[in-house]
Amino acid sequence: MRGRGSGNDSSQSRAVDPGTARVLAHLDAHAKVLQGLQAEAAVIVGIADAVAAALQAGHKLIAFGNGGSAADAEHLAAELVGRYVTDRPALPAMALTTNSSSLTALANDYGYGAVFTRQIEALGRPGDVAVGITTSGKSENVLRGLEAAKKAGLVTVALTGAAGVALPGVDFGLAVPSSFTPVVQEAHIAAIHCICELVEQRWLVDGAR
Predict the structure, then answer these.
(1) For residue 132, which of 121, 147, 152, 118 has the smallest C-alpha distance?
(2) pLDDT in tens, 175-206
(3) Which of 31, 76, 91, 162 falls between 20 and 30 A from 15, CA-CA?
(4) Residue 8 has what pLDDT?
(5) What digits encode the pLDDT tens for the residues 118-154?
(6) For the chain, which residues make up each domain, given as ranges?
(7) Of 43, 78, 81, nearest to 194 (Cα)?
(8) Can you tell me the distance from the alpha carbon of 14 to that of 198, in angstroms, rounded to the nearest whole number?
(9) Phi, psi of 130 (to 5 degrees)
(10) In sequence order, what E strands does 4-92 have?
(11) What is the rounded CA–CA span in Å between residue 71 and residue 97?
């Protein structure tokens, strides 16, 4: 029989290898940020309502960002053009990061800061929704794209990290309560999925009227 003080007592904490510890730390940070994002639920609903209203009025969604945020912009557009969960009519949405010829021509001729501005000027119309995604809240080309969208009469949405909380001039700003880029990106995807779910629901309920 083992004594109460035995080092083999299963109630004692076991050593965790470094790899597992890293995974657990990342998942813990992820969970805490998502919990903090709950305070922004009303903002997410507001964004979804604005997107649904624009699409139902015959307008479109335009999304853009850099790197991982470019992938998030394309993800958002794909969920609307295809489907999120439920079959319904295709919804007009596009990402400004998929045309390599336009991106490289604009970067070469006007500078990288103008790659979204020029596309907004060409493709954006009053009543459309522009979604700019920047984890830092400081990406020049994204901020300039949002400024151009606002000037052109588009509804503007910014998805940022904590540093973007005071981003001026946008109609809707969702600032994830973290400055750790990977976790901010994960929270952006969670928010994007919430938006798509609500847009799809509103389209199926309200769009059928």
Answers:
(1) 147
(2) 998 888 999 999 999 999 999 999 999 877 76
(3) 31
(4) 53
(5) 999 999 999 999 999 999 999 999 999 999 999 999 9
(6) 41-206
(7) 43
(8) 44
(9) -105, 125
(10) 61-65
(11) 8
For 152-178, give the DSSP string: TT-EEEEEE-GGGTT-TT-SEEEE-S-
**What is the CB-side half-sphere exposure of residue 6 using CA atoms within 13 A?**
8
What is the distance between the alpha carbons of residues 38 and 33, in angstroms, rounded to a whole number?
A: 9
Alpha-carbon gap, residue 44 to 39, rounded angstroms: 10
Tokens representing residue 21 in the block: 């510890």
Closest CA to 26 of 192, 134, 185, 190: 185
Q: Return the number of other C-beta atoms located less than 10 Å from residue 10's C-beta.
A: 7
Does residue 71 have a pLDDT over 60? yes
Confidence of residue 13 (pLDDT cuts 50, 70, 90): low
Fold of 41-206: Rossmann fold (3.40.50)
Mean of pLDDT values over 95-116: 97
Q: Which residue has the tokens 């990288």?
A: 112
